[in-house]
Amino acid sequence: MTTLQNLSPDCKLVALFIFWVLSAFPQLSAENAKQLMTDACENELRQRKQNALWASQVERRIAGHVYREQEIDTIGGAVHRLLSVDGHDPSPSELKQDNDRLHDLRENPKARLTLKKNREAEETKVDDLLHVIPDIFLFEDQGKLGGMERLTFVPNPAYKPATYEELAHALSGVVLVDLTEKRFARFSGTLTQPVSFGHGLLGHLNKGGMIEVNRVRLSPGLWGTNLFRTDFGGRFAIFKNISKHLDETRNDFEPVPPDTDIQRALEKIAHKSAIFSQKTQGDIERSHESEKAL
User: Fold this and answer.
1) Per-residue pLDDT averaged across 245-267, rounded?
2) Is 72 in a helix, a strand, or coil?
3) Is residue 81 a contact partner of residue 99, using CB atoms and an 8 Å limit?
4) Domain locations along the chain
5) What is the distance in angstroms between the CA of the first residue and the CA of the last residue of the chain?
6) In the predicted structure, residue 199 carries a pLDDT above the cut 70
7) Could you tell me where the DSSP H helices lie in the chain?
8) How many helices (H) and strands (E) does the chain have?
């Protein structure tokens, strides 16, 4: 008797259903998996050319503390304002430090130029990586997960990475691709080997480091990153814009005009801060009046 004949009626039904699902949704070949990644990378590059800008609420977890910020994308780099620390209003010293930073950004052209140059350098590296990701890795299809295609990836031994590509080339992990719009929905990778940059002169990373990125659909054809985590051991001077230990989430995305510059973002932040300060002062005054009434 065959294995299927030995199963109970209920188990037979389940087994037949699984067989039907696997037959109806065959796994992609290695060539098709690579093509899906190529399509996803091209769609990411296409969005980046649109220069879509967003405002969002960001939570950063650093050294045991949770910092909540308002962040506004601009053509010259992201501008952010501290809103709370560990769920409470910033202390006077934290608020002064944040105000001083924003004041310097508003009044100091050199500070704005530095922010813009850092953004441009970061954008260039991301664009370059998106162009080579289909070749850096070997992909294997693991089937569908809801409306996503689940692919695993390992370094492609035939690919010779440039210095700035060595970190990515050493990763192995999983990527989820949204099949409706062919966009990256999740990327999770782990360093399966140590990495040296410039024979160690430019830095090194230890085996076991990880990176995790989650992206969400904000509107048709436009996606944004709502989770970004890194945990690397070692040092790397070449990637100044990547933190070794980063844990941040974003929500409450709102589109902003595509020509928004740093000055306009600072004005918007100052306006919201003034409204917040007025409300806070009103709450304090009402509290004092209640205490007098008692």
Assistant:
1) 94
2) strand
3) no
4) 29-293
5) 87
6) no
7) 3-6, 9-24, 30-49, 92-107, 109-136, 166-169, 262-293
8) 7, 13
Entry pTM: 0.78
Beta-carbon count within 10 A of 74 CB = 23
> 71 CB contacts (<8 Å, ≥6 apart)?
55, 56, 57, 58, 78, 79, 80, 81, 250
Amino acid identity at 25: F
List C-alpha distances in Å: 60 to 48, 209, 247, 262, 270.
Answer: 24, 19, 6, 22, 21
Scan for tokens 């999983």, then name that residue.
174
Are 173 and 204 within 8 A, CB to CB?
A: no
Q: Are 116 and 138 in contact (CB under 8 A)?
A: no
Residues 130-185: pLDDT tens digits? 999 999 999 999 999 999 999 999 999 999 988 778 888 889 999 999 999 999 99
Helix (H) or strand (E) holding 186: strand 183-191
Q: Report the C-alpha gap between 223 and 229 in whole angstroms.
A: 18
Strand partners of residue 212: 188, 229
C-alpha count within 13 angstroms, C-beta hemisphere, residue 81: 22
Rounded distance, CA 21 to CA 11, Å?
Answer: 15
**Neighbour tally for 17: CB within 10 Å:** 10
Q: Is 117 strand, coil or helix?
A: helix
Q: Which two tokens stand for residue 160?
A: 């010779």
